[in-house]
Design goal:
Elements: E1 3-5, E2 31-32, E3 35-36, H1 41-47, E4 51-62, H2 69-75, E5 84-98, E6 103-106, H3 108-111, E7 114-120, E8 126-128, E9 130-135, E10 140-144, E11 166-171, E12 179-190, E13 201-204, E14 216-218, E15 224-233, E16 242-246, H4 247-260, E17 266-267, E18 270-274, H5 277-282, E19 291-296, H6 301-305, E20 312-316, E21 319-320, H7 324-332, E22 339-345, E23 351-357, E24 359-360, E25 366-367, E26 378-382, E27 388-393, H8 398-402, E28 409-413, E29 416-417, H9 421-430, E30 435-441, E31 444-450
Antiparallel strand pairs: 1-15, 2-3, 4-5, 4-7, 5-6, 6-10, 7-8, 9-10, 9-25, 11-12, 11-14, 12-13, 13-16, 14-15, 15-16, 17-24, 18-19, 19-20, 20-21, 20-22, 22-23, 26-27, 27-28, 28-29, 28-30, 30-31
């Protein structure tokens, strides 16, 4: 039975690989009649240094098996043992998207629960990485390393992809080392692998296997079009059905992680389902694809824009969509406060375009970044480039213990002005040791020491 393999990074280091013999083929000539044969090698020589191997170590909690109810009659109710912490190791891939700042994108499931994250570069260097933030619902994570002479990859507009476009997957399957495979875009806007997640996958037949998670899917120009994340196949093996997170979706999420330390997902405030042929016929619609709106939440972005129940969404930001899941995936990667264009077909058959300003999703399934261990427990928010507002403090957290309070403004560190969360993170990452946070509390200026 085919199964969906999402945990492509979980290649245990103790795993063994079986190889089958393959038929030998003669090498192709470099030219025919004086004309050089086409090759991907020149492009790949420029791109492959931007794809890295990620090795992780950590511990996770393992639940102890409970005695089945049927046997408790004979054995009584034994004292339940506490869950155990067991070590794990795993491998995955990542893509350098900013060489100057050392930003690397990978999948959330590659680095989830990892206590140690090591990056292996193509030139042989091994560097420990810090996780800046992650979003479990879209399976994206952002890492940072301190290193020079890095190679970054150029990011393409994934909305410009068409079925049939050539693609190249780069990653580290089975821990063998960097591997390149090629294929085409098999489909766009795929969803349904996990209905709880935000999905808008690129499907490709380029071979993707365990360990490719977080690797690059590029076009023939060497531009990043997707982050490889999942496969469908027996026993987790490749059968030509692989999925990648579109580069536009990744970029939207990463920008939020960099700016806020977390994903602040925007919501349109609608419920619905994918338009079916039967429903389209009953409503006498010319289209048979789209997202049918069943209800609109009061006070939502959709209601304020004028979108109504019974409308059928056919475009988001002028990109054609086929299903309600695709609407959810595209909207879910756009941050709160941003505007989005939604084109609908009304119940009378008219086509109309709306502009909505997305509102914040309160529970977005995000994993906040750790800006500094002594700021853990503090909820932070940017304030128009004037500093960082502390919106909430968890009781007895490190932030509470050092004296931060709800309503405080962090406006500087060590006499350096701080405009936003990204400035704060970058400064504390680059400057180790004792630092003084410049705090404005009401009409009072004060300093809080962290180290």
């Amino acid at each position: 039975m085919n199964k969906i393999s999402l945990a492509l990074s979980t290649v245990l280091l103790s795993s063994t690989l079986a190889f089958s013999s393959a038929p030998a083929y003669a090498n192709l000539p470099y030219s025919v009649n004086g004309q050089a044969l086409p090759s991907l090698a020149p492009m790949l020589e420029n791109v492959t240094p931007a794809v890295v191997l990620i090795s992780v170590k950590g511990t996770h909690e393992v639940q102890q098996q409970r005695v089945p109810e049927a046997f408790r009659y004979f054995f009584g109710t034994p004292r339940q043992r506490p869950n155990q912490e067991r070590p794990f190791q795993g491998l995955g891939s990542g893509v350098i998207i900013d060489a100057d700042k050392g930003y690397i994108v990978t999948n959330h499931h590659v680095v989830n629960e990892a206590d140690e994250i090591m990056i292996s570069l193509q030139d042989g260097r091994q560097i420990e990485a810090k996780k800046i933030g992650a979003d479990e619902s879209s399976d994206i994570a952002l890492l940072k390393i301190d290193a020079e002479d890095l190679t970054e990859i150029k990011i393409a507009d994934s909305d410009a992809l068409r079925v049939g476009d050539f693609t190249v997957a780069i990653g580290n399957p089975f821990g063998l080392g960097q591997t390149v495979t090629s294929g085409i875009v098999s489909a766009l806007g795929r969803s349904g692998l996990n209905n709880q997640n935000y999905e808008d996958f690129i499907q490709t037949d380029a071979a993707i296997n365990s360990g490719n998670s977080g690797g690059a899917l590029v076009n023939l120009k060497g531009e990043l079009v997707g982050i490889n994340t999942a496969i469908i196949g027996p026993n987790g093996g490749n059968v030509g059905i692989g999925f990648a997170i579109p580069s536009n979706m990744m970029s939207n999420l990463v920008k939020q992680i960099i700016e806020y330390g977390e994903v602040r997902r925007g919501a349109l405030g609608i419920r619905g389902y994918t338009l079916t042929r039967e429903l389209a016929k009953a409503m006498e619609l010319d289209t048979q694809q789209g997202g049918f709106i069943e209800s609109v939440e009061p006070g939502s972005a959709a209601e304020e824009a004028g979108i109504e129940a019974g409308d059928v969404i056919i475009k988001v930001n002028d990109i054609r969509i086929k299903s309600f899941e695709e609407v959810r995936g595209k909207i879910g990667s756009i941050g709160a406060g941003n505007k989005v264009s939604v084109t609908v077909i009304k119940s009378n058959g008219d086509e109309k375009r709306y502009t909505a300003t997305l509102k914040k999703v309160e529970t977005a399934g995000v994993e906040p970044s750790s800006i500094h261990r002594m700021l853990e427990g503090a909820s932070l928010e940017n304030k128009d480039g004037k500093g960082v507002l502390v919106t909430d403090i968890e009781e007895d957290s490190p932030a509470d213990i050092i004296g931060l309070r709800e309503g405080d403004y962090i406006v500087g560190v060590n006499r350096k002005r701080i405009a936003n969360i990204a400035d704060l993170r970058d400064y504390l990452t680059e400057n180790k040791g004792v630092s003084l946070l410049n705090i404005v509390r009401g009409n009072t200026n004060l300093f809080i020491r962290i180290r």
